[in-house]
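Backbone Fold Data
Goal — fold tokens
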Amino acid sequence: MTPETAAEGNEALQKLNDFAADVILTDLNMPGLDGFGFLQRLREGGEMPPTIVLTAYGNIETAVKTVHELGAYWFLEKPIQPSTLEVLIRRAGSHAELRTEKRVLERNLVYKGSLGEMVGMAPRMQEIFALLQQAGPSKACVLITGESGTGKELVARTLHALSPRRQGPFVAINCAALPETLIESELFGHEKGSFTGASERRAGCFEVAQHGTLLLDEIGEMPLLTQAKLLRILEDSKVRRLGGRTEFEVDVRVLAATNKLPEEAVSSGHLREDLFYRLNVFHVHLPPLRERKEDIPAMVETLIGDMNRKHDCRVTEVSAEVLESMQRHRWPGNVRELRNVLERAVILAGEGTIEVKNLPAFLQSRPAAAGGMAANAPAAPNPGGTPAADDADAVKFQIGTTVEEAEKGLILRTLEHTRNNKTRAAEILGISLKTLHNKLKEYGPRELGIGV
């Protein structure tokens, strides 16, 4: 390959936009952007090629700063022996080849059914893995959608791990879990005295995530006024704390997640259209577990290993009956529900094989026998959504039940199933905790069985 030359740092950066260098040689003292500034800009741009620094003003302190702090491959003082420089260039080139091979191996992992902590051989998961490999190294925003429990935060962490920011912080904030009065303080920070109770300056999530990744979960639950401020930060990369007078620059990659269809959130007025387009550079939609049940065996194997380490157990496998039961279940809570079921089973089994007896009751039931009720038999009238005696996991409604009545019955039945654990119920229903609380307020104490 023919080498490229540049008179100073800014010219070199321009050329690197169109020239994929394997090795870079740079002086420290140059007109315009000097070697220190050039190295800093290279480092900010992500993984830099092996860079050899030349200077006539060398000392130990400069060498340490250049090699360790600025990420240079090697440091040489002038005058330079050509043979020494040739050896270094060859070594740096070999180092670049090894990094390329490593990236190829990482990409090949996609086709073996895993990417980081994510597991999946289903065609849709393979497509997602390929997209993550392409989007990960970039600075672009990514919008992650899917039902609750499908692993949206795991996707965000995988994107962070695949990016040049992997050494920086990963910060996640749930927009639905914060009161409207506090969310801006959490995101942008505040100055002392900016509001009642602000007794000291506090850094927001953007500051905490500096040079890293920030995940905004349940973005559709963020107040519209806050969405407008977020949009400006995404455009300008500048943040102003609440009560502050000046802005400061931030270097943060923003990812967003929602369990709602973003187009519906836009049309209903819960998500600003301009913010949606700004976040939706890449769109990753996670399928529910019921649509990729072929992945369950591999996921079970991976999760058992995690649970063994977490609880100091020695479980080796699940029985064929357990796997069959898992394949039959619809998994309304998706991967999160599967993980919880396996954690319980691993603890109960302790070692060896997980048997059906180690599963929750709703997974121990078997299909009806030939002489029993047919799977497609018509349901008995059941306007209240009460489960039939033969299926404790079902909610059945009589023809003629209104949508509002069916929704109410489903919510109340799910709360009964979770023993009034509202967070768990919201996850199973695929709605935010805030939405669930609003629905319960509509129903009133009488509908909830509370005395008035």
